[in-house]
Design a protein that fits this description.
The complex is a heterotrimer of chains A (about 300), B (about 240) and C (about 375).
Chain A: E1 7-16, E2 20-30, E3 35-39, H1 46-53, E4 61-66, E5 69-70, H2 75-81, E6 82-85, H3 97-107, H4 116-124, H5 139-151, E7 157-161, H6 169-184, E8 188-193, E9 204-209, E10 212-217, H7 219-224, E11 230-234, H8 238-247, E12 251-257, E13 260-265, H9 271-280, E14 287-290, H10 295-305
Parallel strand pairs in A: 3-8, 3-9, 6-7, 7-8
Antiparallel strand pairs in A: 1-2, 1-4, 4-5, 9-10, 11-13, 11-14, 12-13
Helix pairs in contact in A: 3-5, 4-5, 5-6
Chain B: E1 5-14, E2 17-27, E3 32-37, H1 43-51, E4 58-63, E5 66-67, H2 72-77, E6 79-83, H3 94-104, H4 109-122, H5 138-149, E7 156-160, H6 168-183, E8 187-192, H7 195-198, E9 203-208, E10 211-216, H8 218-224, H9 230-238
Parallel strand pairs in B: 3-8, 3-9, 6-7, 7-8
Antiparallel strand pairs in B: 1-2, 1-4, 4-5, 9-10
Helix pairs in contact in B: 3-4, 5-6
Chain C: H1 2-17, H2 19-39, E1 47-53, H3 58-70, E2 73-78, H4 82-90, E3 96-100, H5 104-109, E4 117-120, H6 125-146, H7 160-163, H8 170-201, H9 203-208, H10 214-243, H11 252-275, H12 280-298, H13 310-315, H14 320-334, H15 338-362
Parallel strand pairs in C: 1-2, 1-3
Antiparallel strand pairs in C: 3-4
Helix pairs in contact in C: 1-10, 2-8, 2-10, 3-6, 8-10, 8-11, 8-12, 8-14, 10-11, 11-14, 11-15, 14-15
Classes of the chains: A alpha/beta (about 300), B alpha/beta (about 240), C mainly alpha (about 375).
Chain lengths: ~300, ~240, ~375
């Protein structure tokens, strides 16, 4: 039982049917008290991995422990000690806010009062709507209620499967603030998200794609490992700009990034050279500046290396 | 050139509740226009009025040159629609989906056949044309759904969170498809929760409490709010206790 | 224990907050009973029959008189010869002809089996059977009275079940059947949906990742529905009693206890179905389609089990409804006590325990 990791995953694989390899020898470790992000697009295997850890699915191969408990053998202990929030809103819509919370407190053998401290921040905002049916709450409030229910038994590890999918930017922001506060209370949090910009809010992240881990590190190190010069370029005609940049001889990759195109170059090329090239292509309103590397840049670079 | 969409003090009330409060804006032809707002800000109601699905309470609006009160059938023929949640029938094959959507927009058979070839080839999906849509990776489905939604060559295409959850490379490919369509003169109207998606639009409007709180290019909005991303602009505008007017 | 209580409370909230479903659940039995009671009844009044009386004696006269006095029959024509019978049927005037042989009275006195022939038009077998049953019951009763209770060589065997339904009320047959079928189908459907709904909504996922035991979930699902199913049973019984004057001759307590047992059996069958299905739609189809036909056909509700092929007779033993129909008919119509139905009760109890055990065993503690 001696294991310094809150979550320890060793070579876990999972297939659905013949064709779908949901997870392919995934290994990763999460330290106690860490806020760890599982970042990847839909279908990357995030939900499968979280379900295996939450003892809802069995892995075909490999081992995993949560709090030192084996996910296969010791599922009962894990179920007592972890909090789990599925990707879909999974509370009783026809029960009120308070009824839902009471229900989950009781099935975990506790009461709202006993662990009120832990959820004070979150549930406090919901209390004015105590008697409202969960189905009638707004997206952000549903999410807060679901989090309160997942926390009510004071879990040591919290699994959150895409908690911010489908909620607006304001609620998303608030949700991450709540997670930061929970982390300070010593709860280990494993959160999955398809939104690359949320990676920077985690201590460490695993980038995952097609069931394989591309990289595990701190967001800063992942961004830092991007080793090509990167320019942000815009002109008046974006569509033509992308196509022209792809024709440029030193181009490693050119992808639209909002209102700029991120141009990664093979070798040290002066921005002036790119400028001259674009002028030659009759672009107007040319703006070229060094780009700040984002997780998305790194993710795409890692993806194309695969 | 006539704008693709004009809305003039467009309003929708449900009983006492004003969901959309006198919104006025214009979308130029060939523009990629982002339509943002928090949950419950009135986005969905506004789009339904523009699509001819909901009758406005007051105000004026024209879509593709047609009136949203009287000419909804004409509007429906000239718009395309794609949402992340539902667009394709997963238990039909790629070909069957194309045939179906071609059919409901009344395209001639020869045209459907021509489009089928072109569309499938354009997406590099020839070997999968007879596969069920549900067997395709999500990114492909999204691209296919977009191609199908503009198959009947609409003047305006409405996209609802088109690239949420898609991997970053596929997402870029998707945006390139949108740029290409816009470049050919199609107007693209994007609604989304995700502010990084908004960065790709030519201009964005942000709704809050039934009104349009801001409308400009992402670049100008970021400068105006001294923000580094649209996410910050949005939080600034819609959070309680915001400083901006 | 606390867990179970809160689970039951939650389930009760679900039931009472879904007003529309609740209304359907309680309204459906009503509609069914009224439908079966009024529309599908095969009761007969003033059916036109013909008589060929070759004996022309006192006995045949008396029987004919009883026919007309019963209110079920109306004499349409007195035929003259055997050859008239076929002609008569061809004309389609009547459905039944009673033929009294020439030496009826003499044979009776000499203890030679006398034969009164009942000829029915069997193109509509249900009506034919009913008419024959009615007519033979009337004849049988007449003969019995004549012999003052002594054994007589009965000319025609009357069906035993008529004895307990002397006025030949078919509604007496239907009410127990309807109660059985409603309780079976509704109960199985309610619980199978209640669990698959949690699977569909994703709440099952959250319940699984909690210390709740499968047995707590299953028992917590069953208990609230017992009450609901009993309310349905009460509705049907009350309708039977007040609208159709259906008697309850046995002990009411016994009747309710047996209903509870049968409801538990059906509810646990529903749970078993739900452990094997993922969506409400499939659960509903299985509990309706897969249970409805065997329950209706093999329970003895419509078709007597004795007249089924051997294979079906054996098969009918695994239909819980068969045993409950026997129980409920005994209690309601015959007024028998527990000592007569303990065997059937034990079989139902065994079935209920089997279904619950199988459900707990089959309950998936993980997602598929």
């Amino acid at each position: 039982m001696s294991n310094q990791f809150a979550i320890d995953i060793q070579g876990v694989s999972k297939r659905y049917g013949k064709d779908v390899q949901a997870l392919d020898e995934v290994s990763l470790q999460v330290r106690p008290g860490e806020l760890f992000g599982l970042i990847g697009p839909d279908g990357a295997g995030k939900t499968t991995l979280i379900r295996i850890l939450a003892t809802l699915l069995l892995a075909d191969e490999g081992q995993a422990t949560v709090d030192g408990w084996d996910v296969r053998k010791d599922y009962k202990q894990i179920r007592r000690n972890v909090g789990y929030m599925p990707g879909r809103f999974s509370l009783y819509q026809d029960l009120s806010v308070e009824e839902n919370l009471t229900f989950f407190a009781t099935i975990f053998g506790t009461t709202i009062r006993e662990n009120y401290d832990l959820i004070r921040d979150i549930y406090g905002q919901l209390e004015p709507f105590r008697t409202r049916k969960a189905g009638k709450l707004s997206g952000g409030m549903k999410q807060k209620l679901a989090l309160s229910c997942a926390l009510i038994h004071k879990p040591s590890v919290l699994f959150l499967d895409e908690p911010t999918t489908g909620v607006d930017a304001v609620s998303r922001h608030e949700f991450w603030e709540m997670l930061q506060r929970l982390r300070q209370k010593g709860i280990t949090i494993l959160v999955s998200t398809p939104y690359m910009d949320e990676a920077s809010l985690c201590e460490r992240v695993a980038l995952i794609q097609k069931g394989r881990i591309l990289s595990i590190d701190t967001p800063a190190n992942i961004v830092g490992s991007f080793d090509k010069p990167l320019l942000a370029i815009r002109t008046d005609d974006m569509y033509r700009l992308i196509n022209d940049l792809r024709q440029f001889e030193s181009t490693h990759s050119a992808y639209p990034f909002g209102d700029y195109v991120h141009l990664a170059l093979d070798g040290p090329i002066w921005a002036e050279a790119v400028h001259a090239y674009l002028v030659g292509k009759e672009h107007t309103g040319i703006e070229i500046k060094p780009a700040e590397v984002t997780i998305e840049d790194s993710f795409m670079e890692l993806m194309s290396k695969e | 050139m006539l704008p693709a969409i004009t809305a003039d003090k467009l309003t929708k009330r449900f009983g006492d509740f004003t969901a959309v409060n006198q919104i006025t804006f214009e979308v130029k032809k060939g523009e990629i226009f982002g339509f943002l707002g928090a949950n419950g800000a009135g986005k969905t109601t506004a789009i339904r009025m523009l699509n001819g699905l909901s009758r406005p309470t007051a105000g004026k609006a024209q879509v593709a040159g047609f009136d949203v009160y009287r000419q909804t059938e004409k509007i429906k023929r000239r718009i395309g629609y794609m949402s992340q949640k539902f667009s394709l029938y997963e238990d039909l094959t790629v070909r069957e989906n194309i045939q179906f959507y071609g059919g409901i927009y009344g395209l001639p058979l020869a045209e459907i056949r021509r489009q089928m070839k072109q569309l499938v080839a354009g997406l590099g999906m020839e070997p999968y044309a007879r596969n069920l849509v549900k067997s395709l990776p999500l990114g492909w489905r999204q691209k296919l759904a977009f191609s199908i939604s503009i198959m009947h060559n609409p003047e305006i295409v409405f996209l609802d969170e088109p690239t949420g959850g898609v991997d970053p490379i596929t997402r870029r490919q998707f945006w390139e498809m949108i740029y290409k369509a816009a470049n050919e003169g199609m107007t693209v109207f994007v609604t989304t929760h995700y502010m990084d998606e908004a960065e790709y639009c030519n201009r964005v409007s942000i709704m809050a409490d039934g009104r349009i709180a801001a409308l400009d290019t992402p670049h100008a909005l970021k400068e105006q709010f001294h923000a580094t991303s649209m996410n910050d602009v949005f939080l600034n505008l819609t959070r309680p206790g915001r400083q901006a007017s | 224990m606390k867990q179970l209580l809160i689970f039951i409370r939650k389930e009760t909230y679900h039931i009472f907050r879904d007003k529309r479903t609740l209304l359907i659940l309680l309204g459906m039995p009503m509609v069914q009973v009224l439908l079966f009671g009024f529309a599908i009844t095969n009761e007969i009044t003033n059916a036109r029959i013909a008589i060929l009386d070759q004996s022309k004696g006192e006995m045949s006269r008396n029987i004919i008189q009883r026919f007309t006095a019963s209110g079920y029959f109306e004499i349409d024509e007195n035929l003259q010869s055997l050859s008239d019978i076929e002609r008569h049927f061809r004309q389609g005037k009547t459905k039944l002809v009673a033929v009294f042989p020439p030496q009826l009275e003499e044979n009776m006195k000499r203890n030679v089996p006398a034969k009164i022939q009942l000829v029915a038009d069997a193109t509509d077998p249900n009506t034919a059977t009913t008419l024959i049953n009615y007519a033979s019951a009337i004849i049988g009763r007449y003969l019995q009275e004549q012999s003052h209770g002594q054994a007589v060589p009965l000319a025609i065997n009357t069906e035993v079940k008529m004895l307990y339904n002397p006025r030949l009320k078919s509604v007496y047959m239907f009410v127990p059947g309807v109660i059985t079928i409603i309780l079976m189908l509704m109960s199985a459907m309610m619980t199978s949906i209640a669990i698959t709904r949690e699977k569909e909504l994703g709440t099952m996922e959250v319940l699984l990742v909690s210390p709740l035991r499968p047995s707590t979930i299953i028992i917590g699902k069953v208990i609230p529905y017992i009450v609901l199913a009993l309310a349905m049973a009460a509705i049907v019984l009350l309708l039977g009693a007040f609208v159709f004057n259906m008697p309850i001759r046995g002990s009411l307590v016994l009747l309710i206890a047996e209903c509870v047992l049968f409801v538990i059996t059906s509810l646990s069958l529903g749970i078993l179905i739900s452990t094997r299905t993922e969506t409400q739609q499939v659960a509903m189809l299985i509990s309706l389609m897969a249970l409805m036909l065997p329950t209706i056909l093999l329970s003895g509700f419509i078709f007597p089990i004795e007249s089924m092929p051997k294979v079906l007779q054996i098969l009918s033993n695994i239909i819980p409804a068969k045993w409950f129909i026997i129980i409920i008919k005994n209690v309601m119509l015959r007024g028998t006590g527990f000592s007569f139905i303990w065997k059937e009760t034990l079989i139902l109890l065994g079935m209920a325990m089997f279904f619950i055990a199988a459900s707990i065993r089959n309950f998936k503690i993980r997602l598929a």
